[in-house]
Amino acid sequence: MIGIRLFNLISVGFFGMILSAAFCDICWTRKKVLAMSGGIAAILLFQGTVYFGVDPEIVDKLYPLITHIPLTVLLCILNRKCFWPTISVLSAYLCCQLRRWLALLIVTVFAGDAVMQDAAELILTLPLLLLLVRFIAPAVRSVSCCEVSVQCLFGLVPALYYGFDYLTRIYTNLLSEGVPVAVEFMPFACSVSTLFFVVYISREQWTRTRLERTQAILNMQVGQAIREIAALRESQKKTSTYRHDMRHHMQYLSSCIENGQLGQAQEYIQEISAGIEANKVRVFCENEAANLIFSSFARRGEDSGIRMQVRARLPQLIPVSETDLCVLLSNALENALHACREQGEKGRAGVIEVSVYEKKGKLFLQIVNSCNRDITFHDGVPVTDRSGHGIGVPSICAIVEKYDGIYTFSAEDGRFILRISI
Question: Computed over its alpha carbons, how large is the radius of gyration of the chain?
């Protein structure tokens, strides 16, 4: 009887220590495997010394000192972390109850005794350990890469159960005596943990949904930006084609003049001039994408009676991708045009001033435009509740944050100011 009890104590110690190690995200080199094996052997030897040299009945009460604390210290050294190894040890202790409860179920079904209990636990040890290591341990290890708040939430139940088990079953008899507070504590703890879990998951899901929605908007705007750049480049090609075909145009005009068709020649000249002017790309800097965007918005501003001043010093190679630059400038200038149009509806002149340059691998952008005085800010960012608006600013912020940059929005004296450093 004592022999099977002793073997069961050794097996549960082996079960818990192997599972604790499996729950830790450790890169198992040969040196670490040897260190872990030596540590397990030393802990089991220490347990045997206490069991035979002191009192078998006191082993359970000293278990935290002779097993859990040394095991946690060993895992902290191997894992080079302090917090997660503690959670892994507590979680493995909780998993030991699977082995114990399944054995209790077998004893209850077959009306067995304490010997059958120990025998059933021994038989269940290896298959249950293999199942947990194979299917559960990888998922548990993945939690160690999460935020500390997630790790705390995961370790809440194992920690509560550890304290509950020792206080009510090993150090006292509160659980076996049926004290209501002790009996009902774990259901209460599970309920509280479930509620915390639901609240946390709900918050995480809301954040994920918001990020996915923002990402979808950004993807849509990037696609639109790519199409706009393609359209502008096509216009530039048409202008080049007009220039290339100038010889043919001159021949046609010469033929019209020779035949006395001066009116037709004049109409043709106006048509060609308008086509070239409409597709002309102004050169503000060396960066082609920036020139295309500035030219497009400058034309749109002129059509709306808005004066746009651009001071740009951008080389072809800048620390921002072409699509991100297009999204950034397009959204900022679109918002500026919209604000200036509102000023025009009130009979006020709309002006947009753009200053952008690159220096020491950094992109600096400032856009100042006329605006209304009633702009609402939330956490330093302008917000609006008007339908169809409010997408451009989050897109600007997302692009800047992608490059770990800085952005500021401000309004003063009827002017809206956007400053960006990437």
Answer: 37
Q: At what angle do helices 246-258 and 262-278 cross, to 10 degrees?
A: 160
**What's the CA gap between 195 and 212, in Å, rounded?**
25
Domain annotation covers residue 30: yes
Residue 241 lies in a domain: no
Reported for 32-35, long-range contacts at CB under 8 A and 24+ positions apart, including other chains, are 32/78, 35/74, 35/77, 35/78
Residue that finishes a domain, picked among 101, 126, 145: 145
Instruction: Give the residue among 346, 350, 338 at the shortest CA–CA distance from 390.
Output: 338
SS3 content of the chain, % helix, strand, coil (to 5): 70, 10, 20
Which structural domain range is residue 93 located in?
Answer: 2-145
Nearest to 293 by CA among 344, 248, 260, 334: 334
Question: Which CATH number belongs to the domain containing residue 302 in this structure?
Answer: 3.30.565.10
What is the three-class DSSP state of 147? Answer: coil
Q: 303 and 337 in contact (C-beta within 8 Å)?
A: no
Is residue 141 in some structural domain? Answer: yes
Total tally of structural domains belonging to the chain: 2
Q: Is 188 domain-assigned?
A: no
Per-residue pLDDT of the chain (422 residues; tens, 9 = 90+): 567 888 888 999 999 999 999 999 999 999 999 999 999 999 999 988 888 887 777 888 899 999 999 999 999 999 998 999 999 999 999 999 999 999 999 999 998 888 899 999 999 999 999 999 999 999 999 999 888 888 998 999 999 999 999 999 999 999 888 889 888 888 898 888 888 888 888 888 888 877 776 676 666 666 666 666 666 666 666 666 655 556 555 666 667 777 777 777 677 666 666 555 555 567 888 888 888 888 888 888 888 889 899 999 999 889 888 878 888 898 899 889 988 988 888 778 889 999 999 988 899 999 999 887 778 888 888 887 665 455 678 888 888 988 999 999 999 888 999 999 99
Distances (CA, A) of 101 to 10, 94, 107, 308: 18, 11, 10, 77
Beta carbons of 351 and 306 less than 8 angstroms apart: yes
Domain boundary among 129, 145, 161: 145
Give CA–CA dist 351/307, Å, rounded: 5
Q: Are strands 415-421 and 362-370 parallel, antiparallel or unpaired?
A: antiparallel
